[in-house]
Amino acid sequence: MSVKVLGISGSLRTDSNSEWFLSKTLEFIEQEGLETELLSLRGKTVLPCCGCYGCADAKECVQKGDNFAELFDKMHAADGILVSSPVYFASAVPQLMCLLERAGFAGRMSGKFFSGKVGAPITVARRAGHTFAFAQLLLWYFINDMVIPGSIYWNVGVAGAKGARDANQDAEGLSILEHFAKNMAHVMKKLRAENDA
Length: 197
Fold this sequence. Notes:
By secondary structure, the protein is an alpha/beta fold.
């Protein structure tokens, strides 16, 4: 059975910096022999969690009328999950947080299936605010009992409003993500080998 990593881009922009960094990270992971898939929240609607606790009884999110269910199913099926977010005001973008908050609630109420999955966030900003958003997203991974590989620095990219033309200038950021990708693939292979033994 193949090991699959799902990358979720929280940016709504075309030619997005954060999506570019995410796609490069997925390429590095593919070079390590793992299957990957990139999903963008661009063009999708994810309503915020309303705190109704309907998922406690239904074992799934009871809100309807948006794209949450299809995204949630992909997260459920993946062995690893990466998310990327642009940083505008020192925090992750709200559309990504809507997805993660609902997925966190529904996942915990339906068997804590995020437990043992591997992943980490990637945040991108022009100058500052990366680490606040990075820490914010790390909290989601930690409370969902996920395995978080390290790297030689935080998974942050430096880029401005010019999209990939800016992002591909951040050689250090790319090397951090390449190292992270190797670590993530290594951890996932070890976990799969233990599970298959």
